[in-house]
Structures are given as C-alpha cells and as structure tokens.
Specification:
Layout (H helix, E strand, L loop, with lengths): L7 H8 L3 H10 L6 E3 L2 E3 L2 H15 L4 H12 L4 H34 L42
Antiparallel strand pairs: 1-2
Helix pairs in contact: 4-5
C-alpha cells in the first residue's frame, strides 16, 4: 500500500465515521471519487483535508449543500474568504434564532424550577398564553419526515 493513500476503512477510522458516510459524501459530491488500486478505493491527503473541512462546517451548523457550495467555489479558484463570508452571513441569522430559542428554553426551565403547582392542569407554564420554550422555532436536530438525517444536514 502506498504510504500517501488510505483505504476507505483507514480514512473512516481516522475521522471516527462509518465507511458509509464516506460513500455518501462521494455520492453527494463533497468528496471526490477516489483512485482505485486493485478495486479498492485509495484516498490521498486531499480527501482527508476535505473531511476536516466538512467536520468544521458541520460543527458551525452548515448544511451539506452549504458545505458543497463552499468546497465547489474554492475548488473553482475563487478566494476561500469570499464564499465563506457569504455563507457565514447567511448562517448567522439562523444561529441567532437558535440562541434566542435556547434563551427562551432556559427562562422557561428556570421558571419551572420555581413552580409549586400541584397539577399541570392549573400550571400557567402549560397555558398557550404563556407559551412554550420557543415552540415555533425549528429544532436543528429534528428529523425531517422521510429522511434518516437530522434536519441540520438536510438541504
């Protein structure tokens, strides 16, 4: 085996992901199709770097489509900061909404800690006029109907 390449299993182990995730990234166009040696996929340093980028943008809340846009634009020769700045400016309002949701949840939970109601039927925390912890805000990890991926990774 060439020292500069990794098998799909080695690459998956290095990043702590399943080999199926690597194949999925290939199908989705965020990881280029690898060279094959005796029928086995062989990944070079470029694949490892792309997976590193994918890990970071996922933690930053970007969708797979947004990650693809970032990778494609930088691969086309555009300066990385241009597409990164544009995507970040679009993502920031979503993050602000998540923060507002978390703050509303925290407030509700703090109020719940001090609750002394003997029945949920009479507790103001459960009245529609009181509201629930940001119930109208989309939950970032809610699974979208018909998919097996968290909503954060749906386009």
């Amino acid at each position: 085996m060439d020292q500069a390449t990794l098998t799909i299993g080695q690459l998956a182990q290095r990043f702590g992901i399943n080999t199926s995730a690597i194949r999925y990234y290939e199908r989705e166009g965020v990881l280029p199709q690898p060279a094959r040696v005796s029928g086995q996929r062989r990944y070079g340093p470029d694949a490892a770097k792309r997976l590193e980028v994918l890990e970071v943008v996922k933690r930053a809340g970007f969708t797979l489509d947004e990650a693809r846009l970032l990778l494609q634009s930088t691969g086309a020769g555009a300066p990385a900061f241009e597409s990164l700045r544009e995507l970040a400016q679009r993502k920031l309002p979503e993050v602000d909404a998540l923060i507002a949701r978390a703050q509303a949840m925290r407030t509700w939970l703090l109020t719940a800690i001090d609750c002394s109601c003997t029945s949920l039927d009479v507790c103001a925390l459960f009245e529609p006029s009181h509201g629930t912890p940001a119930s109208d805000a989309p939950h970032p990890l809610r699974v979208t109907r018909g998919t097996s991926r968290p909503a954060a990774f749906n386009a």
